Amino acid sequence: MTTVSDADDVRRLALALPHVEEIDSDGFDFRVGGRGFAWSYPERLPGKARVIRTDVAVLFVGDEAEKQALLLGEPDLFFTTPGYNGLPLVMVRLARVPPDRLRELLTDAWRMRAPDELEADLPADLEDVG
User: Fold this and answer.
1) Is residue 36 within 8 Å of 112, Cβ to Cβ?
2) How many other C-beta atoms lie within 10 A of the C-beta of residue 64?
3) Is 129 a member of any domain?
4) Which residues does 99 contact at the CB level (< 8 Å), separation at least 6?
5) Of 40, 54, 75, 103, which residue is the least packed, with the fewest Cβ within 10 Å?
6) Residue 62 maps to a domain
7) 45 is a domain residue
8) pTM value?
9) Where are the beta strands (DSSP E) in the chain?
10) Which residues have CB under 8 Å from 25's CB, separation 6+?
11) How far is CA 127 from the centre of its chain?
12) Are the CB atoms for 40 and 58 separated by under 8 Å?
């Protein structure tokens, strides 16, 4: 059986990256240099209150091309909603992603958001991720 991820894995892997702080929230919300790079999906359904989904992570990606490649290449794993149109963000279904892949995705998201001066602090074993 393949090991899958959950919110605890997101927390453990995100906090292992340098200069990451967790913001108090109903789910999880991680920032580097004051910039968010991974958080719980705030699902909004018509006529209903917002629900924080800790089984889905919102992650930064490089650009629209990378976003589309992920969405089209692995639609069972990644998705988006109209509220994220035009933004370099994807949602990942944690129950379908192994922890090693989640580590890669979080590291890439960290790289997209970390100020340049912090990138040098990324451990060498994470440099080759992605």
Assistant:
1) no
2) 12
3) no
4) 3, 5, 9, 13
5) 75
6) yes
7) yes
8) 0.90
9) 20-22, 29-32, 35-43, 51-60, 78-79, 89-93
10) 39, 40, 52
11) 17
12) yes
Give the domain extent around 57.
Answer: 7-115
Which tens digits make up the pLDDT trace of 95-121?
A: 999 999 999 999 999 999 998 888 778
Average pLDDT, the chain: 91
Using the predicted structure, report yes or no on whether residue 125 has a pLDDT greater than 70.
no
Q: Which two tokens stand for residue 2?
A: 């393949």
Rounded Cα–Cα distance for residues 19 and 83 (Å): 29
In whole angstroms, give the CA distance from residue 119 to residue 44: 34
**φ, ψ for residue 32, nearest 5 deg:** -135, 130
Count of structural domains, the chain: 1
- Say if 127 falls within a structural domain: no
Q: Of the candidates 16, 36, 17, which has an alpha carbon nearest to the alpha carbon of residue 27?
A: 36
Q: What CATH number does residue 95 fall under?
A: 3.90.1150.30
User: CB under 8 Å to 35, separation ≥6 — which residues?
Assistant: 113, 114, 115
Q: CA–CA separation, 32 vs 121, rounded Å?
A: 12
